[in-house]
Amino acid sequence: MSRIFTAMFLHETLSPDEYVTSRQDFENSLVLYPDQSHETNNYWYTPLKVWRELAVKHACEIITGFAAHASPSGPIEKNTFNFFCQQILEHLEKIHQPQNRLTGVLLHLHGAMIAQQCDDAEAYLLREIRRIVGADVIISVLMDLHGHQTHAKKQYADVIHYYHQYPHMDLAARATELWNVTQQSIVKLIQPKIITFPTRMLNHMVTTVEPMRSIIQWLEQQVNSTKGIHLLSIAHGFPWADVPESGVTPVAVYDEKQATAKILAEEIIETLGLILYHWRDSIKPQTVSLQEALIKAQQLRLLNSGKPMVLAEYSDNPGGGALGKAVFNLQVLLEKKIPRVALSSLWDVDAVEKSFSAGIGQELELALGGTLDPEQQRYYGVPLKVKVRVVNLIHNLQDEFSSGFLPKGSAVRLSILHYWNGKQWLEQHDVEVIVNTLRAQTFSPQCFTALDIDVARKDFLVVKSMYHYRAAFEKITDPVCVLTLNTPGRLALDFTKITYNKLPVNTFWPVLKNIPEYDQKIAVLLRNPAALFTQLDTFLRSELLHSYML
């Protein structure tokens, strides 16, 4: 009978960054110790739930270990990281004994976790786990697709699998795939081997639109266990982190026992890598300025759309480590006196505390959002001087995401009555802002509706998110009404303007405009109609033409 240990340690790290992630930041989201009840509706815990259910179904013994998650931010404070690792490792040493050995370890890690003085935090943890369990125990890892695929991770893990979808709506599916391959590896049906292809490309790719939607569909079609191809995925990397190894990296897990599996796996991931490089400009997010978004909204109103515009503040996404305090777009909307606006959510603990002290219905003057730090004002702007009315208060706002919930802390709904533009007070009409105490991105309209905002009556819903919000917000409006704003912020889309000291970006696109050896390979493959690359490229062009004609 299989005896499996599971654990979870998730953090997406923006580095370098002055904000150090503390133990309290994890406590604010999720920390579960081995001796605690692990009944939680936190979405990121989904894989551990799936593995527990599969263990019961297949009569396997499963031991659930430590689990922790914190919202993306700066490097984890050293003592906190060491303490959390200790929780996992000490528990593992206790249960893995000569007379009662584990057969497998299943981990849910992020892949882009950085601790103080440790750039590849997951590799450190995997190395220590391997030291404890030895070479014969299968170690399998599920990781966020924004993880960094590194040589060390591949060295210490037997199986690595990344989410396919962004937004991450597929955790249960990927966790199930990982379980199945792990079980086959434990009973020696297969001998798993990881192989990767570095594209030397920094990009931030979205998977629900073309051409990435079809690329992911093709990737999933290439999995073929009879030919020894068991798992395929893409590590997108987290391009706002300065680490020695990163970038878009296709990953395959094949069966080393099958003679031809390695050759096929190499062909598939090289094809995938070259296609991603070939379509590099098309797979990145398409953005507009706020002014362009306002013009688009006016055009849609002339067509009697009647649906709210959803404007995403990509560069101030707390889900990528930004603080969620930027006020650039809000300031423009106030200066233009644009009505019927709702924004979720500003991270401003002081504003929340003052609003709770004042109470519902009270009016007060606030310096809202932004920062007083001159070094950070280029990312977040200066606080906005506003007069507001406190409309609603909630102590524990829970945002919805897929089948789970994520905390946003205490939150307040503020109606902005007047804005001081430096010369005079400008009266505002139906402009509302959600302000909360926990720094977290907006996933769903629940952030508005929980505070009794009728989203259907708003012209503009401004959300601090990159892409996860689309899964829920596209259900309340038309896709044409969902736009990504290109505004100043911590998470700039132009990677050529980011200073990297550890990552050799001079050999990466977009700093390096073209990679000659990849261009040469593509030219050769395009002349070969039988090549996987040519078939996939033809398929993508056909899909894009079909979408355009529709």
Per-chain topology:
Blueprint: E1 3-10, H1 23-27, E2 30-32, H2 46-57, E3 61-69, H3 78-95, E4 104-109, H4 121-133, E5 138-143, H5 151-156, E6 159-162, H6 171-186, E7 192-196, H7 212-221, E8 229-235, E9 249-255, H8 261-278, H9 290-302, E10 309-313, H10 328-335, E11 341-347, H11 349-358, E12 363-368, H12 377-380, E13 384-401, E14 404-420, E15 425-427, E16 431-436, H13 446-449, E17 460-463, H14 470-473, E18 482-485, H15 516-526, H16 532-549
Parallel strand pairs: 1-3, 1-4, 4-5, 5-6, 10-17, 10-18, 11-16, 11-17
Antiparallel strand pairs: 2-3, 7-9, 8-9, 12-13, 13-14, 14-15, 14-16
Helix pairs in contact: 2-6, 3-4, 8-15, 8-16
Word description of this protein:
Strand 13 and strand 14 (404-420) form a beta hairpin. Helix 8 packs across helix 15 and helix 8 (261-278) packs across helix 16. Strands 10, 11, 12, 13, 14, 15, 16, 17 and 18 form a 9-stranded mixed beta sheet that branches. The model has no long low-confidence stretch (mean pLDDT 95). This protein is 31% helix and 23% strand. It has helices at 23-27, 46-57, 78-95, 121-133, 151-156, 171-186, 212-221, 261-278, 290-302, 328-335, 349-358, 377-380, 446-449, 470-473, 516-526, 532-549, and strands at residues 3-10, 30-32, 61-69, 104-109, 138-143, 159-162, 192-196, 229-235, 249-255, 309-313, 341-347, 363-368, 384-401, 404-420, 425-427, 431-436, 460-463, 482-485.
